[in-house]
Amino acid sequence: MSDLALSDIASPDDLKVSIGNYCSGVVIVTARDPDGGLHGMTCQSFHSLSLDPPLVAYFAGRGSRSYAALRNLDRFAINVLAEDQEDLAMQFARSAGSDKWADVSWTADRFGQPHLADCIANISCSTYAEYEGGDHLIHVGRVTAITHDPRRAPLLFFRSQFTRIEREASG
């Protein structure tokens, strides 16, 4: 197995630019702690991991203060953002400690975890595992409930900016 360092083949900035050519959706990870405190963070590194058992995963930087608040909670929710929720994505991208929840509409799932309103999907999870991933941590959740709205289109992230699916006019 090769043991090349990134600096042997490209700079971290080169890798970031190259990976930025991969289009992804945008989610907000939310949770409520036992004292009722609300936590959340915007994340574009989210993936389906397994159908049996039903697992999903998101990745967070080791230095993320928002993730520090989320990582030890037993339950959380993944909120898949719709194309008109760019402002919400920016609101939850702020540092922990800011009032990310100001004027945010949400409901509690059957486990008490916050589901943000008007998302294209809300996925309730219980924490399953956490793995090392270089300068990130990989948080795996077991899906415990799901809701979705197939009428809505997703918010996308491509080349370091938000974008939308362009549809051809029919007719």
**What is the overall silhouette?**
globular
Helix content: 10-25%
Q: Summarize the main sheet.
A: 7 strands, antiparallel
Unreliably modeled segments? none
Task: State the total count of DSSP E strands.
Answer: 12
Mean pLDDT: 92
Distance between the termini: 54 Å
Strand content: 35-45%
How many helices in DSSP terms? 4
Query: How are the strands ordered across the major sheet?
Result: 3-2-6-9-10-5-4
The radius of gyration is 17 Å
Class derived from helix and strand content = mainly beta
Along the chain, the helix and strand elements come as: HHEEEEEHEHEEEEEE
Family: Belongs to the non-flavoprotein flavin reductase family.
InterPro entries: Flavin_Rdtase-like_dom (IPR002563), NADH-dep_flavin_reductase (IPR050268), Split_barrel_FMN-bd (IPR012349)
GO molecular function: FMN binding; riboflavin reductase (NADPH) activity
Domain Flavin reductase like: 19-164
Walk me through the topology.
Layout: H1 6-9, H2 12-19, E1 24-25, E2 27-32, E3 38-43, E4 46-51, E5 54-61, H3 65-70, E6 75-80, H4 86-92, E7 106-108, E8 114-116, E9 121-133, E10 136-148, E11 156-158, E12 161-163
If you had to describe this structure to a student in words, what would you say it looks like?
The chain is mainly beta and 171 residues long. It is built from 4 helices and 12 strands; from the N terminus they run H-H-E-E-E-E-E-H-E-H-E-E-E-E-E-E. The protein has helices at 6-9, 12-19, 65-70, 86-92; strands at 24-25, 27-32, 38-43, 46-51, 54-61, 75-80, 106-108, 114-116, 121-133, 136-148, 156-158, 161-163. A 7-stranded antiparallel β-sheet has the order 3-2-6-9-10-5-4. A 3-stranded antiparallel β-sheet has the order 1-11-12, with no helix packed on it. A hairpin with a 5-residue loop joins strand 7 (106-108) and strand 8. It is globular and about 50 Å long. The mean pLDDT is 92. Keywords: Oxidoreductase. This is Flavin reductase (DIM6/NTAB) family NADH-FMN oxidoreductase RutF. One of its GO terms (molecular function) is riboflavin reductase (NADPH) activity.
